[in-house]
Each structure stands twice: as C-alpha cells, then as structure tokens.
C-alpha cells in the first residue's frame, strides 16, 4: 500500500512504528525522498498540499473553530428558537429583528476572538527559529544545506539537528552522533533519552517510563523536544498538527476544564431561561383569556420572552472583553483566550514561580567558598569546568558562572587541558548537572553541581586546605549550616562535588554520582524586585492569596517570600506533595503559601488540588513541562520569554514578567466583569419589571399595552445605550474582592428592582387612562407611545442610578458618577425615544403623538422613580447584600 499520496503521509501509530524501524532504503522509498533530500520543486509541491508545519491547526480551521465557539452560546440558541417561533406565527418583522440581534452578537464575538488570535500570532512572529534542511536545487544537482523557518518543512525533508535545537517535526533519525534528547514535553520523563538509528533488536519499553510506547521510540525525534547534545541527520515523517505533540496539544485543548467564567455564563443562561419559561406562558394565558385573540397573545408572549432575555449580553460581553484586551495589551499583557479576562476577575489564588516574577531575573555570581564556608576559588573553578563542557542549554545560573569566570583565555586553556567524556544533564527533578572530563590519560573526573540537598547526601569526603578528608557528621552539619546561612540572606547556593574514576569506555549515568568529594559552594544573588512587595500587597488587598511554587531550596524560598511580604508559615517540599493523596493535598495546599523544591508535576498537582477546593487559580509558568499546570489553572500565565509550547497553553502572555503587571491585569479583569454584571443585573431586573407591567395591563386593558415590535425596538434602543457600558467606571469597592458570576444575587436583585420599576409603569398607565382619558382601543397607538417613552426613559435612567453602590448625591461625585460615554449614550437614546412618536418611523411602529400635558406627569414619574430606587438601594445594601 502506498502511504505517500501527493507527498502527504496518512498516519496511524502502527505506520509510525513501522517507519521507525524500517531500513533506510525502505524509509526513503516510503516517503518518496532520498538521503540527498527533496528537490526544491518537490518541497514546494508538498507544502502546497500539506498544512503549514505549525502546532496550531490550519488558519482556516481556526476561523471556523472561532465561529463555532461564537455561535455556541445559550443566548444565541434561545433567541434563535424565539426567532423561529416568530416565523412560524407569521410575524416576519419580529423574526427579522431577532435575527439582527443574533447576527450582531455572533459576528462581534467571532471578530473579537479572531482579532486576538491575530495579535498573538503577531507576537509569536517576533520569535524567530530556523532549521537546517538539505535540499537539491533540481534533479541531478548536488544537495545544499540551508536554514529555513520550521513552517516550511514537509514530509520527506532531510534535516540536520544539533545541540540546542528544538526538533521542528516528527523525524526518523538516519545518522546520529551522541544524540541526547530532552523529551519531557511529551512524556513527563525528565531524564534525557538517547536516540539514534534503529538497532536490529526491536525497542523495548524502558522501566518506569510514563510516556507510553510512541515517545519511547529511540529512532524517532519528536516535534517540541530539544536536542541536549550531539548531532543527527533525520528525515521528516510528519509535520504540524499531525505530529505527536500536535495531537497531544489538540487533545489538551479539548480536555481543558470548564473555567469559573464559563460556569457563570452557563448559570446566568439557565436562570434567565427559567424566568422565561415561567413568565411567557403566564402572559399567554392572561392575554389570551382577556382578549380572546390567542394568535396575537402568542406573538405577544414570544415578544415578552425576547424582552426577558438580555439578548445583547454576548455583544456587551464581547465589547467588554475587547476593551479589556486592548487595555491589557497597553499594560504589556497579551490575551490568548478572551474569557480569561473574566477568569482573572475571579482569581483568588495566584501561584507564582520565583525567578523573574518576584526577583529581578539578573542572577549574578557572588562568591566561591570551601565546605566550611571560607573563601576559596576551587568550587568556582570546577563549576566553570562543568559549565564549559555542558551541552544542555545554559540557564541563568550557568550564564552567571560564565559571565564571571570565562575571562579572556579561560575557554582556550580549558579546551587544551581537558577533554569532555560524558554528561548527565540538568533537569528539574534531579536538580543537579554532571559532566565527566579527562585531564590525564587513564583517569576521568566526574563533576556535579546542583542543589546542596541533592549533592550533600552523595558526598563521603570533602576538600579541606587542598586535602581530601572524610566528611564526618559534624562536617556535614557544618556544611548544611553554611548553606543555610547564605540562603537565609536570599543567596542562591550551588554545591560542587567531584570524583575520580579510572578511564572506561562505557558511558556514565546517575549510578556514578556517589562517593563524591565536596569541593565547596558557589553563591549567586538574584535580588528581589523593588516592585514585588507592593504588587504582593496590592494582590492581598484585593483578596488574592499569592503562593510561591519554586524548584529552589526552602531557605531561599522562605527568604524571598519574607522580603516580598508573603506570609511564610510551614514550607512544603516537593517530596511531601508527592507523598500526599488527593484529600491530604487539598488540606496541605489550603494552609501553605510556600512550596519549595517542586518539579513541574508537583506544580500541576498543587493547582488541581486548589481548584478542587473551589479556588479560581492563576498559575505563572514558562517551562515546556509547565504545560499541564498552565492548562489546568483557571488562568494560565506565561512570560513572553517562555517556550512556544508554554505560550500555546497560556491564557495570558506577559511581555514583562512582573507581578505588578499581573496585579494591574487582575484589576482590569474585575473592571471588565463589573461592567458586564451591571448590564446583566440591571437589564434583567428592568425586563422583569416590564413583564410584570405587561401582565397587569393584559389583565385590565382592552388592548395590548405595547405591540411586539414596539417592545423589541424599545429593547434594541436600550441595548444600544448599554454598548457604552464597557467604558464606564467601576466602584473601588467592587474591585477589591475576587468576582465571579453570581446568579444567586441576580435573582434577588431582579426580584427587588423589577417590581419597583413596574410600580412606576402602572402609575404611567393610570395617568394615561384616567388623567389624560386615553382609554379606548381607537386611541391605543397613543397609549402605547406613552408607555414606550416612559419605559425606555426609566430603563436608561435607572442604569445611571443602579450602576454604582453609592447612594444619594454620591452618585454624582467623581468616583460615583457615570463616565462620559455612558452619559452621552444615555442622553442620545433618551432624545431618540422622545422624538420617535413624532418621526417618520411612527407609522411603521404604529405610534401616535402624545398630548403635551403628558410630559409634566412623565417628569414627575421619572423623578419619583429615581428617588424610590435610591431609597430601596440603600435598604438593600443595609441588608448586607452583594450589589452588582
Ligand atoms: N544550571 C544548574 N546546574 C545545576 N543545578 C542547578 C542549575 N540550575 C538550577 N539548579 C538547581 O536546581 C534547583 C531547581 O531549579 P529550577 O530551575 O527547577 O527552579 P525553578 O522552579 O525554575 O525556580 P524558580 O522558582 O526560581 O523559577 C535550583 O534551586 C538549583 O539548586
């Protein structure tokens, strides 16, 4: 069977496994390629057929996916259903009005999401990576090697990999030299894996591996993994979303747990559906019984149902989120998932790492000391030797050693005097790195540097004044004290130890890191950011508990926490997290603020336990293997400098990895949610009031109090005014606590302010009926215009009163007053409403101009309504109830 059709390989695992072990000639044949690589023409042809070699799905499908998520909202479903009912009942004007509402909300929401996707792509484009590919200019011509963007790779391309490279696609190794690959992104397996062309003996699953068979194929390098050391030539088998990582990323995307915002939106949707289900049939029954015209009653009931739905909610939410996203990007925060802004508002626990978030991220070498704490350069010399030969990527500590010790001739001299034999790279679980070198023939020196807690137990001897002496218990305690004393001053300490071995041909592994001689310690400073304490205080003042999750030593963690003002208490270590079952862990995380010596797996478990305990959790991470925790958290946050995979998993990307930026972003999230909640609560209560008025009017009037089309135009006008709400101010009080969607509060709010507004509607009916004598079916157009104006004006005005919890004249003080856009929109809509019965549209809306005598009464009713709303608000708040 030909598995390469038009250069596209259709993948299932058995085929991958087959290609993993295939002889080179079969491999190239199956991929329609050759060891000299593809021709440029063939590569162009294949790239036209295959999707780009990107982790994300093809652009087209992202747009479709976004469209799908924009449509999938309970309000859209509800309104579409009501639109269908209108059509069935023959009211096309009603159906069109509802369709416009639905279309507007879907398009706006979709547009916002696509725009933010584009912004993120723009950000990613700033990070350039290239891959070396071997291609021929044409058939029969010699191949050349050149650098191309990873997106340009196609199945069949021959690539050359070297130390420090990110593997750009799933590729079968055809030749390798001491190839060591970090596969932790795929399998959680933290030890590096040796890779090379397949051996004649089939691969066996290594013990203790967590990644499953695929990741254990030792002849395949997978996209997203990185080359720790060595070189390789490989042929690309599969690219982009079809790689192993691509499918995992896709699964993880789908597996994302529902966030607190999503839960809130769903709950609001259901509360409104319940109200509608109760109210619409009642309106139908009352109106049908009184008028006897059941068809008209049915139309009216559907219009009431539309009126009861805050139909512009998706639009207002989208507009709010968009404004929030723009504001955040000005504050160095890029949003990758719009809803994350609302989740940010609900966040009550923020898990942060230490380096860069709390500290200045400028690690500097400080000193070198012997095991007893006396100044001595030997530890630094060994550490430099180890870093010099280390091929796994240098981190900040390594760079600090190089900056300080790689003086003019040092690299040359080191290369001349020593030869590298082997390496056991650093990883977050081992918390140490080892290099083996040869100085004298017949003798190897193993040098290990790392967390003192990891190194000291592996030492049996120590250096003292140039001598190697046995490490007594007292010496060990003394060394521990030295580490602690420096760590207590916030200094990061690496222990350095060495050991001599007779030269051998076989490689070295962890089993050789024992019976070491402790050479001493090197110290580093990474000062706490000046702004960190202020930011931590701001977060605490706003009800967010900051927890530190660091791979570093407990003393340093405690010191940094104390400097930043985070209460320390009991410090929990990674090993304790590992030993605790889920229930124990929930209790542990509830009382702990500092977790030290934790690896990425522990971090993910801590986040899950916090979520299980009901918290809305933010998590800051930047490693490839922080992906799980980033996805598990309600808000995953990564710095711009993080790996692509981590950024892909994050909801927020910080262009400046600083806690202050995060604190500001959190306040912005609450402001956004505050303005959204204003709309939901005030609108739902006004609509409930309308329905109650309609019920009373239906039972008492010989005609409809308002026609369905009038009811919906009134709704549209009101909603148009509310489009300015995202630009409104929010009470300081509201911003001070984590906020989630609160539907319990919504019901109470509706039941208080809905009937209140209804009272003033009834007063309007009374004025129209008894005082102005508009009391016959022939005059219904005038009556309906009267209620249309009063209803619209009272709804718009009440937003200005209820939008803040300030009472009395405070509403008009600078912090309580509405923002200018909100005020301007309200005035504009009030004017339109007042002029409508006199306009050209009056006929289409079946309204008649009102007698001027109506307006003093209107003024009095509106004034009394505002005063009454203030009084009720004050009482409502005195009852200790949550406001918006
Ligand atoms: N280059 C290195 N060589 C040897 N050991 C190292 C190296 N870098 C770090 N370590 C040790 O491993 C420990 C854990 O480091 P890791 O990078 O996992 O911490 P982290 O979680 O990133 O810390 P942070 O919270 O500060 O960001 C360090 O405390 C240190 O003792």
UniProtKB/TrEMBL annotation:
Pfam families: Cation_ATPase, Cation_ATPase_C, Cation_ATPase_N, E1-E2_ATPase. It is an enzyme of class 7 (translocase). Residues 703-874 form the Cation-transporting P-type ATPase C-terminal domain. Residues 139-252 form the P-type ATPase A domain. GO terms for molecular function: ATP binding; ATP hydrolysis activity; P-type magnesium transporter activity. Keywords: ATP-binding, Cell inner membrane, Cell membrane, Magnesium, Membrane, Nucleotide-binding, Phosphoprotein, Translocase, Transmembrane, Transmembrane helix. This is Magnesium-transporting ATPase, P-type 1. Mediates magnesium influx to the cytosol. It is a multi-pass membrane protein. Its EC number is 7.2.2.14. GO terms for cellular component: plasma membrane. It catalyses: ATP + H2O = ADP + phosphate + H(+); Mg(2+)(out) + ATP + H2O = Mg(2+)(in) + ADP + phosphate + H(+). The chain crosses the membrane at residues 70-89, 95-111, 267-286, 298-322, 749-772, 784-802, 822-842, 854-872. Belongs to the cation transport ATPase (P-type) (TC 3.A.3) family. Type IIIB subfamily. InterPro entries: ATPase_P-typ_cation-transptr_C (IPR006068), ATPase_P-typ_cation-transptr_N (IPR004014), ATPase_P-typ_cyto_dom_N (IPR023299), ATPase_P-typ_P_site (IPR018303), ATPase_P-typ_TM_dom_sf (IPR023298), ATPase_P-typ_transduc_dom_A_sf (IPR008250), ATPase_P-type_domA (IPR059000), HAD-like_sf (IPR036412). PROSITE patterns: ATPASE_E1_E2. Residues 190-210 are annotated as: Disordered.
């Amino acid at each position: 069977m030909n598995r390469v059709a038009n250069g596209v390989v259709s993948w299932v695992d058995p085929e991958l496994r087959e290609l993993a072990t295939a002889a080179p000639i079969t491999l190239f044949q199956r991929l329609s390629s050759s060891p000299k690589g593809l021709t440029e023409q063939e590569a162009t042809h294949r790239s036209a057929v295959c999707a780009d070699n990107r982790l994300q799905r093809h652009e087209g499908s992202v747009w479709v996916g976004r469209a799908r998520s924009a449509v999938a909202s309970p309000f859209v479903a509800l309104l579409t259903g009501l639109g269908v009912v209108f059509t069935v009942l023959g009211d096309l004007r009603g159906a069109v009005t509802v369709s416009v509402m639905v279309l507007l909300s879907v398009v706006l929401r979709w547009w916002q999401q696509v725009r933010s996707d584009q912004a993120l792509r723009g950000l990613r484009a700033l990070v350039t990576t290239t891959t070396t590919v071997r291609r021929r200019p044409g058939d029969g011509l010699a191949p050349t090697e050149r650098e191309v963007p990873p997106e340009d790779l196609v199945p069949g391309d021959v690539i050359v990999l070297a130390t420090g490279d990110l593997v750009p696609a799933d590729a079968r190794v055809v030749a390798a030299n001491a190839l060591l690959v970090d596969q932790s992104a795929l399998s959680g397996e933290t030890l590096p894996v040796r890779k090379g062309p397949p051996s004649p003996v089939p691969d066996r699953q290594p013990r203790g591996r967590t990644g499953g068979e695929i990741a254990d194929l030792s002849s395949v390098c997978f996209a997203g993994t990185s080359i720790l050391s060595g070189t390789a030539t490989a042929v690309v088998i599969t690219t982009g979303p079809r790689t192993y990582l691509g499918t995992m990323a896709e699964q993880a995307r789908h597996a994302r747990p529902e966030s607190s915002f999503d839960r809130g939106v769903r709950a609001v949707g259901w509360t409104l559906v319940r109200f509608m289900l109760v109210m619409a049939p009642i309106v139908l029954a009352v109106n049908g019984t009184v008028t006897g015209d059941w068809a008209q009653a049915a139309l009216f009931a559907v219009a009431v149902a539309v009126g009861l739905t805050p139909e512009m909610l998706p639009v207002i939410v989208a507009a709010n989120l968009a404004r929030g996203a723009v504001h955040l990007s000005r504050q160095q925060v890029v949003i990758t998932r719009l809803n994350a802004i609302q989740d940010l508002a609900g966040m009550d626990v923020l898990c942060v790492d230490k380096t860069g978030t709390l500290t200045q991220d400028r690690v500097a070498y400080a000193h070198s000391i012997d095991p007893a704490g006396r100044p001595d350069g030997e530890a630094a010399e060994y550490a430099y030797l180890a870093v010099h030969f280390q091929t796994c990527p240098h981190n900040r500590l390594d760079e600090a050693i190089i900056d300080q010790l790689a003086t003019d001739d040092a690299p040359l001299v080191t290369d001349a005097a020593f030869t590298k034999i082997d390496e056991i790279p650093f990883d977050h679980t081992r918390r140490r790195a080892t290099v083996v070198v040869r100085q004298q023939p017949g003798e190897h020196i193993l040098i290990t540097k790392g967390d003192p807690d990891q190194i000291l137990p592996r030492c049996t001897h120590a250096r003292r004044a140039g001598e190697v002496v046995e490490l007594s218990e007292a010496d060990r305690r003394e060394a521990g004290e030295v580490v602690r004393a420096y760590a207590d001053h916030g200094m990061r300490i690496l222990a350095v130890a060495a050991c001599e071995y007779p030269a051998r041909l076989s490689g070295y592994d962890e089993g050789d890191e024992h019976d070491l001689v402790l050479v001493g310690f090197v110290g580093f400073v990474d000062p706490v950011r000046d702004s960190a304490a202020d930011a931590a205080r701001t977060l605490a003042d706003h009800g967010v508990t900051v927890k530190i999750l660091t791979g570093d030593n407990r003393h340093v963690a405690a010191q940094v926490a104390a400097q930043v003002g985070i209460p320390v208490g009991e410090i929990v270590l990674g090993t304790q997290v590992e030993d605790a079952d889920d229930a124990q862990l929930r209790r542990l995380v509830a009382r702990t603020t500092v977790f030290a010596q934790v690896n990425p797996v522990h971090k993910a478990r801590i986040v899950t336990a916090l979520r299980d305990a009901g918290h809305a959790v933010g998590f800051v991470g930047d490693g490839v293997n922080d992906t799980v925790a980033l996805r598990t958290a309600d808000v995953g946050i990564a710095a711009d400098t993080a790996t692509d995979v981590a950024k892909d998993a994050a909801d927020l990307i910080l262009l400046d990895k600083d806690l202050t930026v995060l604190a500001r972003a959190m306040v912005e999230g609450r402001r956004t949610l505050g303005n959204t909640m204003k709309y939901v609560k005030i609108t739902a209560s006004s609509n409930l009031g309308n329905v109650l008025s309609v019920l009373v009017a239906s039972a008492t009037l010989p005609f409809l109090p308002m026609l369905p089309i009038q009811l919906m135009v009134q709704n549209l006008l009101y909603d148009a005014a509310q489009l300015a709400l995202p630009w409104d101010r929010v009470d300081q009080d509201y911003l001070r606590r984590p906020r989630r969607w609160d539907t319990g509060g919504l019901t109470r709010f509706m039941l208080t302010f809905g009937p209140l507004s209804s009272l003033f509607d009834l007063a309007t009916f009374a004025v129209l009926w008894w005082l102005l004598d508009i009391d016959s079916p022939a005059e219904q157009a005038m009556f309906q215009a009267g209620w249309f104006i009063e209803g619209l004006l009272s709804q718009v005005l009440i937003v200005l009163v209820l939008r803040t919890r300030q009472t009395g004249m405070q509403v008009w003080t600078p912090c309580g007053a509405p923002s200018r856009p909100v005020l301007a929109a309200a005035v504009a809509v009030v004017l339109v409403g007042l002029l409508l019965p006199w306009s050209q549209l009056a006929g289409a809306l079946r309204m008649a101009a009102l007698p001027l005598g109506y307006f003093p009464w209107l003024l009095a009713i509106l004034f009394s309504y505002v005063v009454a709303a203030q009084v009720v608000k004050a009482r409502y708040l005195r009852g200790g109830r949550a406001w918006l």
